[in-house]
């Protein structure tokens, strides 16, 4: 196009020695008008064709909600379920949580590799993965909350079904995340769809905790405890209290499984996957391992990933041990489900606040303000364990949870833009940034879950007992107070070395947009 315009300019004006004749100029003007009309009509068709309706965006967002519903339920309640309902010992529970998370982390790049090799079908290239694995996800999730009739092999049962669930949910989540790029070629439409997705995912987290918490709350009240501190394991597997606990957890699993099926059907009916119009058919791609090395050498990515790795471990420690803490350390077992609900409501409400804050004061400043907010309040709950303080801590913790969810996904695109400018000839490495960020955070979360449950084993946790020794309460206070603070401080110190400031972001924006203006 540029060459044609230069050629037309020389032909239109001619030169000083040989000016172009008027009839020649008229012919060129007609050709240019015809060409510009075709380009304009093609552009209008492309923009209109790529525009997403409200229904499509909403259906796409609904498709991502069930993953967060199930993830929220497992994050808050799986640990206490394994210890008090399934009644496996703390060491075995720590192995289930760690190996399951680590297995899920390892399956992310593997599933991504196989998806890139998938062929296009009538319903798309990614949609068959999500639709095909959904029934198996529901079955594996239900049996994860089912207590088998035998006792000796329960560790293998839960380890197997947790790893299976992690594999299947990866087969759903990886293609769902990539589906954003195949909704539309218009960047603004994709950004709008992503905003819908984030809103529904946070609401899904809230719904998951609400469904699970309200249904299973009765399983952890003192009315099921004998007056003496006898372990419920001594009461026999057929005791009425144990049967009630198992039934309510299975009911919650069935409800969440039904939500998963309904949301997937809605997404399948309401979302149309498009083929990638910009994929290179002839250009030879750089091998995966070389791209991985380039990404891992990019210092802004390393500092951002390392910082939020420690921060996510801190949030995971609070999230996974909070129900145990309320039950055994501060005697709030009758209120924990409402406190968890308060945390998530606060997170949902504060996301627009943090979006405004990062636009007004910058992303790095927002990260420091948002993440540090949780530290004094969790320590306050450890030293002042009463109901009013618990709700104050819940509201403040929700603010930090929202910041920890929003900011890394807001800062990663800036890192990708910086990488593109530093490596202008490298293309198609965006997936490496996102998939390995998820890999590292999942792996770290698995380690933190395993180690925290192992600490309870060393503290003398009595599986199935209604009351725990004082050392267990002390350990839970450390896992809720001191340990998260240490991880957050470490993460924020690493974040100090994150080099992308707001001035640099303006430069990146100008550098990325200038070639488009020239072309």
UniProtKB/TrEMBL annotation:
Query: Could you state one GO biological process linked to this protein?
Result: carbohydrate transport
Membrane topology label = Multi-pass membrane protein
The terms under GO molecular function for this entry are:
sphingolipid transporter activity; symporter activity
Subcellular compartments: Cell membrane
* Keyword Transmembrane helix annotated: yes
Q: Does the keyword RNA-binding apply?
A: no
Q: Which domain of life is it from?
A: Eukaryota
Naming one, the record's GO cellular component terms include:
plasma membrane
* Family annotation (Gene3D superfamilies): MFS general substrate transporter like domains (1.20.1250.20)
Q: Where are the transmembrane segments?
A: 126-144, 156-179, 200-222, 247-271, 301-319, 339-358, 365-384, 431-454, 474-498
Q: Do you know which InterPro entries this protein is assigned to?
A: MFS_2, MFS_trans_sf
Write out the coiled-coil annotation as residue ranges: none
Query: Sorted alphabetically, which keywords does the UniProt record give?
Result: Cell membrane, Membrane, Transmembrane, Transmembrane helix, Transport
Family in the record: Belongs to the major facilitator superfamily.
What is the protein's name according to its record?
A: MFSD2 lysolipid transporter B, sphingolipid
The record lists the organism as Oncorhynchus mykiss (Rainbow trout)
């Amino acid at each position: 196009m540029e060459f044609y315009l230069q050629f037309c300019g020389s032909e239109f004006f001619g030169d000083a020695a040989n000016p172009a004749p008027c009839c020649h100029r008229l012919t060129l003007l007609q050709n240019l008008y015809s060409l510009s009309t075709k380009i304009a009509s093609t552009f209008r068709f492309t923009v209109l064709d790529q525009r997403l309706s409200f229904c499509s965006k909403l259906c796409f967002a609904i498709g991502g909600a069930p993953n967060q519903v199930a993830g929220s339920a497992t994050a808050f309640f799986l640990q206490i379920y394994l210890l008090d309902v399934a009644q496996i010992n703390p060491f075995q529970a720590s192995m289930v949580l760690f190996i399951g998370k680590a297995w899920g982390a390892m399956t992310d790049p593997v599933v991504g590799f196989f998806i890139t090799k998938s062929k296009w079908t009538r319903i798309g290239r990614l949609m068959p993965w999500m639709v095909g694995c959904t029934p198996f996800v529901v079955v594996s999730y239900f049996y994860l909350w089912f207590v088998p009739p035998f006792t000796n092999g329960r560790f293998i049962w839960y380890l197997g079904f947790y790893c299976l669930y992690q594999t299947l949910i990866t087969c759903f989540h990886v293609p769902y995340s990539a589906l954003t790029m195949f909704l539309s070629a218009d960047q603004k439409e994709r950004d709008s769809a992503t905003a819908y997705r984030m809103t529904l995912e946070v609401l899904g987290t809230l719904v998951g905790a609400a469904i699970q918490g309200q249904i299973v709350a009765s399983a952890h009240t003192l009315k099921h405890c004998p007056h003496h501190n006898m372990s419920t394991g001594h009461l026999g597997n057929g005791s009425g209290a144990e049967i009630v606990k198992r039934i309510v957890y299975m009911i919650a699993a069935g409800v969440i499984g039904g939500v998963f099926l309904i949301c997937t059907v809605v997404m399948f009916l309401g979302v149309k996957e498009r083929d990638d119009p910009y994929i290179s058919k002839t250009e030879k791609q750089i091998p995966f391992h070389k791209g991985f090395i380039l990404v891992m050498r990019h210092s802004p990515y390393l500092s951002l990933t390392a910082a939020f790795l420690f921060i996510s471990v801190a949030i995971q420690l609070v999230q996974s041990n909070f129900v145990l803490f309320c039950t055994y350390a501060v005697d709030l077992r009758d209120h924990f489900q409402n406190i968890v609900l308060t945390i998530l409501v606060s997170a949902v409400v504060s996301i627009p606040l943090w979006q405004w804050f990062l636009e007004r004061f910058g992303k790095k400043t927002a990260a420091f303000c948002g993440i540090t907010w949780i530290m004094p309040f969790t320590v306050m709950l450890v030293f002042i364990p009463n109901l009013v303080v618990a709700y104050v801590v819940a509201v403040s913790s929700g603010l930090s949870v929202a910041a920890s969810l929003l900011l890394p996904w807001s800062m990663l695109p800036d890192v990708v833009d910086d990488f593109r400018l530093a490596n202008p000839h490298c293309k198609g490495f965006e997936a490496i940034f996102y998939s390995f960020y998820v890999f590292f955070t999942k792996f770290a979360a698995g380690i933190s879950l395993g180690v925290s449950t192992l600490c309870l084993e060393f503290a003398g946790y009595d599986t199935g007992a209604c009351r725990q020794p004082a050392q267990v309460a002390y350990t839970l206070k450390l896992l809720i107070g001191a340990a998260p603070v240490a991880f957050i401080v470490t993460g924020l110190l690493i974040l100090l070395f994150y080099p992308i400031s707001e001035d640099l972001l303006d430069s990146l924006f100008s550098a990325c947009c200038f070639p488009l203006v020239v072309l």
